[in-house]
Amino acid sequence: QKRLFHILTAFITTFAAISYFAMATGDGISFHHTVIKESHKHVPDTTQDIYREVYWARYVDWSVTTPLLLMDLAFLAGLSGANILVAVVADVIMILTGLFAAFGAEGGQKWGYYAMACLAYLVVIYQLAVHGRAMAQSKDAKTGTFYMAIGGFTLILWTIYPIIWGIADGSRTIGVDGEIIGYAVLDVLAKPVFGFWLLFTHDSLSSSSISLDGFWAHGLSKEGSLRVGEDDEGA
Fold first, then answer.
1. Span 71-89, pLDDT tens digits
2. What band does 232 get if pLDDT is binned at 50, 70 and 90?
3. Is the C-alpha dihedral spanning 134, 136, 141, 142 positive or negative?
4. Which of 43, 139, 212, 227 is most buried, taking the most CB atoms under 10 A from its CB?
5. Is residue 201 within 8 Å of 146, Cβ to Cβ?
6. pTM as predicted
7. How far is CA 65 from the centre of its chain?
8. How many angstroms separate the CA atoms of 195 and 13, rounded?
9. Residue 135: how many CB atoms within 10 A of its CB?
10. Which of 208, 82, 203, 192 is nearest to 144 (CA)?
11. Residues 180, 190: Cα–Cα separation, whole Å
12. Helices 194-202 and 56-77: crossing angle, nearest 10°?
């Protein structure tokens, strides 16, 4: 049980490392083709073909690692299973709609998916900032303070992601190189830095230990195992 945060953090950094290795070696990359038509008054209309790299491996990484990050924060705060489920589902919707937006057509389709992703992110914020904060502060002052610090750190970083998307894939104000650098800095802060901070701090919190009895901690006991082909006693 004490190793749960270590296991989740190890999974997060492992998936992120695999994703970056794939992108560095040329995998997980596609081109999004966009045709922009410009109308002119006295000359024929012109079209412009734009090809932009989309690192879809990044979205695969996020679809796995961000739910694990949410579970870290949820277990730290002591969120209920229902709140965790809502947060994780909203997070997956956010990532998938972001991927659809990256490959979406110009105009309504792309920005429609982007709006869906932002709405899903608001659900995640609500679960962490309202329910998570209330649960963490109900433990003790030290746990509540630490949750507010690391949770606020996470939400600030996560809020910068859609901003970068909007000025990179969205409006194409910055190039692919700037997008890569921005996401890389955020990923380092949101994953290994977050993980080290969590692991080095939570052990000292008296109320941060969680109880995961049953299958997770002990496996299937004789009492809870399934019996197939055994007659009832006395039958």
1. 999 999 989 999 999 999 9
2. low
3. negative
4. 139
5. yes
6. 0.83
7. 5
8. 8
9. 19
10. 208
11. 15
12. 20
